[in-house]
Amino acid sequence: MNYNGNDIDKLKDYISVLQSQVKKYRFDALTNLPGRKDFNESLEYHAKSNHYFALYLIDLNGLKEINDNHSYEAGDDFLKKVAKEINLMSGRVYRIGGDEFSLISYEDNPPSYPISTDDYCVGLSQFNESKNAKEYFKEAERMLKKEKMEYYKSRGLERRK
Predict the structure, then answer these.
(1) Where are the domains of the chain?
(2) Above 80 in pLDDT, residue 83?
(3) Contact criterion met (CB below 8 Å) for 76 and 30
(4) Are 87 and 28 in contact (CB under 8 A)?
(5) Model confidence pTM above 0.85
């Protein structure tokens, strides 16, 4: 089959559109971090790999207050700033929800967090050969919820449902 220059240009345009669509699907538009789909695939891979890793779930504190008291634009700016700072940590960072991030780290010592400890709560699950991806996530989520409850209690606040 013979292709002329016009056909090749159309094919290049089509490939570019497809690549753009894949990026939109796999990456968070606001933070440009990989999203939930990449996170799920990566966690599944690591759970089966038999190599050490640690899963950190990071939930930001105060985003609702920033949105309510300032603006959603200020909230977006806060998310972008924190995403940029968290992305400096050792491992792979994902935005998995509104104010939730995850980090898959390959080091056995906890990462240092570049943001103020008042800005986030963390749940952790570390490598164990007998865990599957769901168990890693549930363990980290349990720890995160416990830490979040302690955060609210220590400030005399009521936790949103």
Answers:
(1) 31-154
(2) yes
(3) yes
(4) no
(5) no
Q: What is the CATH number of domain 31-154?
A: 3.30.70.270
The pLDDT confidence band at residue 158, using thresholds 50, 70 and 90, is confident
Residue 86: partners with Cβ closer than 8 Å, 6 or more residues away: 58, 93, 101, 103, 113, 114, 115
Quick check: 24 pLDDT over 60?
Answer: no
Residues 6+ apart with CB under 8 A from 75: 63, 66, 67
pLDDT tens sequence across 112-124 = 665 556 778 889 9
Q: Is there a contact between 53 and 105 (Cβ–Cβ < 8 Å)?
A: yes
Residues 6+ apart with CB under 8 A from 62: 78, 118, 119
Query: How far is CA 37 from each of CA 21, 22, 24, 94, 159, rounded to the nearest angstrom?
Result: 14, 11, 11, 9, 28
